[in-house]
Amino acid sequence: MTVHDYEAKQLAQAFKEMTGITVNHDIIQEGDVVNKISTEMQTGHPIYDIWINDSDFIGTHPRYNDSITFTDYMAGDGKAITNPNLDLDDFIGLEFGKWIDGKVYQLPDQQFANLYWFRYDWFAKPAIRDAFKKKYGYDLGVPVNWSAYEDIADFFTNTIKEIDGQKVYGHMDYGKKDPSLGWRFTDAWLSMAGEGDKGLPNGRPVDEWGIRLDGYNPTGSSITRGGGANSPAAVYALEKYIDWLKKYAPPEAAGMTFSEAGPVPAQGHVAQQIFWYTAFTADMVKPGLPVVNDDGTPKWRMAPSPHGAYWKEGMKLGYQDVGCWTMLKYADPKKLAAGFLHAQFCVSKTVSCKKSHVGLTFIRESDIWDKSFTERAPKLGGLIEFYRSPARTLWTPTGINVPDYGRMAPLWWQNVSDAVSGSKTPQEAMDNLARQQDDVMARIQKSGVQGAWGPKLNEEKTAEYWYAKAEKDGNLSPQRKLANEKPKGETIDYDALIKSWPATPPKKKG
Description:
Helix content is 41%, strand content 9%. By secondary structure, it is of the alpha+beta class.
């Protein structure tokens, strides 16, 4: 990511000039980060002195008791070198790095969301708007539900077909058998569909991975154990993903990975994308791109993602990636102290606003509301407006239900790819995924390594038992299969949506 390149090349050098401490900031692929940090956890031998890894590990680190909390360190061994102006209350994603004891296990370093992206200029064309209204009976706009997204995808792919002599598509995605296919789903695709339960930052008792949490113990992901990973909502989510990929995306999309598909919308032939990371913003506003006007403003906008047929108010609506500084207890204490100093420098208010302009991955409220971003907002396609809105609270990372991210995350791409290839049906793929997640949790439970917070799997019962229990308890997962998974499409005018959001910063806490 751009932000880490900036830290490695610019901030590491600046830190050395000020402190005399040399920082070797090793930038590696996310899959390698997961593998290496898992290796250090398993062997107890330090690979790095301090890490930046996703807060998606917040259910993992505390259960394995492998990390030093920032809360304890700043009050103890690191007290003398703790920045008194660190201002933790200013961090917008601090809660995502906290465990149930309220302590900060992971300190945010960068943050971005997956949102809806669309060609604002095309959506504004009177002829296109009229044709859409005539065909579907409602206005073309930002889709509120998946039904509208699907209608728009079909409309641009099969009715509009061409704009300015170029073939256009109503959807973009990727489908190659690759670890990045797993991110497509663990990064909250099921939550958008409505698979999880109510609750923020993650559904309780069932989260967007379909894992049930009773108390603080994971108790199963199969529907027969009270989970939702193979529930009707989860299967619906996978079916829609495959259906849209094959019908409405460019033919080559099915053979692309995350990194290969990311630049495609900037080529100018895609009308919308339901699952678009705001980390791509900087690459989508470069002068000369087909999706950028001559004055530097984008022809596109981003907005909150639409939700699936199973989604209800009170559920999370999407994923927010929070890369965090993480201190494992295996590091040399002197090197850990140096790493802690550098981490504080990289997130300090002195650095943070400039770093936010470089990478557009905000971690501080004060940066989001800085005058410089008010001035830059028109060229960022709605990014600033989203981060200033209350809507952002519905976008959250993987939470505490997942007891071992490193071992469980790979299961997703391995099973989803079987459904994409057609070797398994979506139901078979999700059944297999749920069973494998339960197997991992069973092994952890048997080993006892996670102690009181570890998995305690429920005995298997019928799906009907769990449906009835959810209804009796007032929960929403697992849900019964809906009779109609495609209700009427609903949209909202983008400009009206933006105007409905607050224009002044929230009051300071405390």
